[in-house]
Amino acid sequence: MSEKLSKDFYARDAEKVARDLLGKLLIRDKRGSKTTGKIVETEAYLGKDDPASHTFGGKKTERTEIIYGPPGHAYVYLIYGMYHCFNVVTGKDGTPEGVFIRALEPVDDLDIMRKRRGLDSEDKGNLTDGPGKLCMAMDIDKSLNGEDLTGEKLFISERKSAKDFEITEAKRINIDYAGDAKNWKLRYLIKDNPFVSEKPD
DNA sequence: GTAAAGATCCACT
DNA sequence: GTGGATCTTTACT
């Protein structure tokens, strides 16, 4: 068995939460179709002082409102007109920071994930190794924006096993618009895990 | 109202 | 490595 992470876990700095989310289990529970993936890659977005963040400078729009709300909620948005991205809101209520989930290692149900991704292959290496892909495989879309992650539809659980991996830090991806911040090492990966979206240098 | 760009993915010259 | 798909969000020529 595993234990669902509480609101306290999320109510900390994005960098700490991003590191601690590695190795945890993301669970999507729809009636009749439950999918689980181990989190293997995250990125921290630091809010008003982070040029890469949607909330840089304290910018607040209809889309980003949820990031300013209480921790432990989902921030889901559509990118490039076709893919969803899933973030976890962190920090105290009122601070606009969060953690972007970039990749999962598929745990189950692999057949459901393949079906949602439109793949037939036995290979499981390309099911959830990217932010858009994992949202497809886990059926995460804008209807889950603002969803409470201590609820039943979408939540994250601690594994009861010992921590059995090392953490690699790397630059974040595809934020060339962010100037110097693109060099900040705010991406965290499970060292040598094959299911990450992109290997670090 | 209109335009420009995007925390991506996939196919391929 | 490069470019196209595709459309919401955001900021204004």
| Radius of gyration from CA coordinates | 16 Å
What structural category arises from helix and sheet content? alpha+beta
Major sheet characteristics: 9 strands, antiparallel
CATH class: Alpha Beta
The CATH homologous superfamily name equals Methylpurine-DNA glycosylase (MPG)
Percent in strands:
25-35%
Count of extended strands: 9
Which CATH architecture? Roll
Low-confidence stretches: none
Short description:
With 201 residues, this protein is α+β, with helices and mostly antiparallel strands.
Q: Layout of SSEs?
A:
Layout: E1 3-4, H1 7-10, H2 14-21, E2 25-30, E3 33-45, E4 74-79, E5 83-90, E6 97-108, H3 110-117, H4 131-137, E7 154-158, E8 167-170, E9 187-190
Antiparallel strand pairs: 1-7, 2-3, 2-7, 3-6, 3-9, 4-5, 5-6, 8-9
The protein binds a DNA duplex (13 and 13 nucleotides) through residues 43, 45, 52-54, 61-63, 77-83, 85, 87, 100, 102, 130-133, 172-175, 177-178, 197.
Structure description:
With 201 residues, the chain is an alpha+beta fold. It has a single domain (7-190), classed as Methylpurine-DNA glycosylase (MPG) (3-methyladenine DNA Glycosylase, Chain A). The protein has four helices and nine strands. The chain has helices at 7-10, 14-21, 110-117, 131-137, and strands spanning 3-4, 25-30, 33-45, 74-79, 83-90, 97-108, 154-158, 167-170, 187-190. Strands 1, 2, 3, 4, 5, 6, 7, 8 and 9 form a nine-stranded antiparallel β-sheet that branches. The longest helix has 8 residues, at 14-21. The model has no long low-confidence stretch (mean pLDDT 96).
